[in-house]
Specification:
The chain contains nine helices and 20 strands. The protein is of the alpha+beta class.
Length: about 375
């Protein structure tokens, strides 16, 4: 029998708002509250509030915490200062990406990790193994909610909610993290997000999440804030050209293929399990690259659509695709041979049997501001 989907601490709030719910990575999550387009545009022009409590939160702590993490993640985290976060990828020995995640240093011996919901168990398993024989412990953070407030008016919403409590959050630099109190709710706030816009993510106890959610919506409503679901989250990340594990990241698509080679640091990394495999991939160069596509006309390719050159040669496939609410044209991400991965290159996509002209463009599709 299939286990029923898990529910976040905000499940009742979503029902009260009339959200359309859907299964996602073992969770029941809001797909939308009203209009996908309105929610997307709210984030681009004002602010949107997302429940991301399905993400896998955990801590690794102890004198050897940094050493344990550096056995798995491609970036150096031992050099992180307390209160700073870093985007990185966790890889297996063959160089395949198990997940991409945010690692935050809380203090000298404690790191906070946020992983994708679908990969939380795999990440937890590998971190448990990485701590073996070290003075470090990995533990999932149960009963922990996570809210993402995203958009150019993020700071305005926070200050409208609590001018005093929000001050340290408003002052954060990108990838900065601070403990704060918003309207009496203790939070761990990070200047991070997945939309291409300014934003903060607020971790708090499950029990505190509904009141904080309601308070943010009330304070932000006059400023244009809307609750947002998974549909808007995906269209926003697509416009920002950000990879999604299982689409643009996985066993054969990693940091070098997706343009994130800069986060791979291999010097003096003898304990990194993927070191040799990543070194080979760096030296050989990627055979495929993830690129952006813009389609001509109104029909656009979706995930799995085959690509060909104008002469009919195979040229990879689409990994994500959707209409762009901001640009008004169909856009996509695709894995294509490195030999054709140049902006301006014309290709042809198979869209339900029809040949649709597309061209490669530089990423992101939409830049902040």
């Amino acid at each position: 029998m299939t286990a029923p989907p898990r529910r976040t601490a905000l499940a009742e709030a979503h029902l009260a708002l009339g959200a359309a719910l859907c299964p996602f990575a073992g969770w029941e999550m809001p797909l939308r509250y009203g209009s996908d387009l309105a929610e997307h545009r709210a984030v681009r022009t004002a602010a949107g509030l997302f429940d991301v409590g399905h993400m896998g939160q955990s801590e690794i702590s102890g004198p050897d915490a940094a050493r344990a993490l550096e056995r798995l993640v491609v970036s150096r985290v031992a050099s992180l200062a307390p209160g700073r976060a870093r985007y990185t990828m966790l890889c297996d020995a063959d160089g395949g990406v198990v997940d991409d995640l945010i690692v935050t240093r809380r203090d000298a011996e404690t790191f906070w990790l946020v992983a994708n919901a679908a990969n939380a168990a795999a990440v937890s398993d590998r971190l448990a193994r990485a701590t073996a024989g070290l003075d470090a412990e990995h533990r999932p953070l149960a009963s922990r909610a996570l809210l993402a407030l995203q958009g150019p008016r993020t700071v305005d919403v926070l200050l409208a909610l609590d001018p005093v409590g929000a001050a340290p959050v408003a002052d954060l630099r990108p990838f900065g993290v601070v403990a704060a109190s918003l309207a009496g709710t203790p939070v761990l706030a990070s200047r991070t997000g997945y939309t291409g816009e300014d934003g903060v993510e607020l971790a708090c106890a499950d029990a505190d999440a509904p009141a904080l959610w309601d308070a943010l919506l009330a304070a932000g409503g006059p400023l244009g804030l809307l609750p947002c679901g998974l549909a808007a989250r995906d269209s926003l990340r697509l416009e920002a050209g950000l990879p999604l594990h299982g689409h643009e990241l996985g066993p054969d698509l990693g940091p070098f293929e997706t343009g994130f080679g800069r986060i791979v640091q291999l010097e003096d990394r003898d304990e990194l399990v993927a070191r040799d495999a990543l070194a080979r991939r760096r030296e050989d160069g990627p055979s495929r690259r993830v690129v952006g596509l813009v389609a001509e006309g109104r029909r656009g390719p979706r995930r799995g659509a085959a690509l060909r050159t104008p002469t009919g040669a195979p040229a990879g496939e689409v990994t994500s695709g959707a209409p762009s609410p901001t640009l008004g044209v169909p856009i996509a991400l695709a894995a294509v041979p490195a030999s054709v991965a140049t902006a301006g290159t014309a290709l042809v996509a198979d869209v339900r049997g029809a040949a649709v002209p597309v061209r490669i463009v530089d990423l992101p599709f939409v830049r902040r501001g």
